[in-house]
Amino acid sequence: MRRCRHLASVLLAALIATIPLAARATTPYALQATPPQAVNRPSDHATGSATGRPAAAEAKHEAQRPIAVRAQDTGFLNRVILLNGTSYRYVVYLPIEYDARRSWPVILFLHGSGERGSDGMVETQVGLPNAIRAHPERWPFIVVMPQVPYSHHHWTDPDMMAMALAALDAEMKEFHGDPERVYLTGLSLGGYGVWEIAKNYPGRFAAIVPVSGGIFWSYEPQRWKQSTILPEAYVHAVGKTPVWMFHGTLDPVVPAKESQIMYQALSAAGGDVRLWLYEGWHHNSWDKAYADHSLPQWLLAHRLSDIPTSHAEAQLLSVPLHPVPAKVDPDIYDDYVGDYYDAEVRQVTILVEGDKLFSRNRTNDLNELLPENPTTFFYPSGSPTRIIFQKDPSGRVTGILYHDDRHEEHWERR
Questions:
Q1: Is residue 111 within 8 Å of 131, Cβ to Cβ?
Q2: Residues 378, 369: contact at Cβ < 8 Å?
Q3: Burial level of 82, CB count in 10 A (0-12/13-18/19+)?
Q4: How far apart are CA 266 and CA 260, in angstroms?
Q5: Which helix (H) or strand (E) holds 180?
Q6: DSSP string, 120-156
Q7: What percentage of residues in the chain have a pLDDT greater than 90?
């Protein structure tokens, strides 16, 4: 009997091994092994089974035995699409709570020029994918991340736009994407692509988010000669589709003027548009844009069928690099001076120079700290990090609560 069970297990393992990998990855439930049935032998008649339990009890035991199933893989999944004889690798992201029994909102994300290639993976290292890793709970979307190859390819090329949309269509079909909630975003080179796809495929997206982008491509500088007429075609195609642009005021690669021109053109035509300008920020405005918790909420508030009857409004907002420092008495800084440890590792040294407070980290980088209030300080760089000094009931400083966009740590003063 043991040999029969062993042979059955071997045959089952061989059968599972022959199932194509792609089919197993996309099948909600894997092949389930049926528990071996008890075989009656003359010596079993007294007990009803080979285990010594009565037959009824054995049947109940088998029915209650948990059956292992293969759940749908989630996270960042590799995919390949064949288009006009060329294979393109890309990635699709599924949230951990993905459920194939309902439809899902979908984002098509276009990377920047630094993430071009053919590995189908480096595009997941910058921008929206990083924001998803930092806060997956904020992004309950399927996210399709195609990749532009090298050799002077751009998202504004017709074949690259076709490839991006083919990847989008494939993943919407595979994972039950909701055509009412399809969104388009991209950064830098991908920001150019957002505008071009929105122009060439009107009525496809419920909202678009160009980040550090525009319509005056750096690789075709002559387009600036048409600055008074070129926006019209984009405005006409976009219509009342909601648009949210982000740009750094000190962007040396794609000037903020590009987004300002599109904002003026769309708002003049009655479009639903907002532009956030990050003061003192350079090209990588995507770090702040995708980290803004209100962006995914804004996307989910828009549906394709609502666009014709939606109330359009224009919003131009200048976002300061950091809060206005609070006015505090510099004499309190002396109370904060010292070394602060996480277990046995020194994390930061706080020191005073004149009437200013500074932090020196483990690599001896010295950075000024500005007060948000008497106990909470921030860096002038615009980082979301906060240094919060902790005190005991007597007012003695006992430690630092280090707080950033992802987590908190407590460092003890010694």
A1: no
A2: yes
A3: exposed
A4: 10
A5: strand 177-187
A6: S-GGGSSSHHHHHHH-GGG--SEEEE----SSS--TT
A7: 79
Nearest-angstrom CA–CA distance, 164 and 387: 43
CB atoms within 10 A of CB 235: 18
Token pair in block for residue 156: 């504004």
| Unique residue bearing structure tokens 């760089």 | 381
Which token pair is 4?
């029969």
pLDDT digits (tens, 9 = 90+) for 358-368: 999 999 999 99
Cβ atoms of 147 and 88 within 8 Å: the answer is: yes
3-state secondary structure 279-341: CCCCCCCHHHHCCCCHHHHHHHCCCHHHHHHCCCCEEEEEECCCCCCCCCCHHHHHHHCEEEE
DSSP state at residue 238:
H
Taking the C-alpha atoms of residue 50 and residue 58, their distance in angstroms, rounded to an integer, is 9
Q: What parts of the chain have a pLDDT lower than 50? A: 1-51, 68-69
Query: pLDDT (tens digit, 9 = 90+) per residue, 225-277?
Result: 999 999 999 999 999 999 999 999 999 999 999 999 999 999 999 999 999 99
34-53 pLDDT per residue, tens: 333 333 333 343 444 444 55
Backbone phi, then psi, for 231, in 5-degree steps? Answer: -60, -25
Burial 189-200 (b: 16+ CB within 10 A, else e): bbbbbbbbbbbe
Domains and CATH numbers, the chain: 2-64 (no CATH), 75-319 (3.40.50.1820), 330-413 (2.40.128.50)
| Cβ neighbours, 10 Å, residue 325 | 13
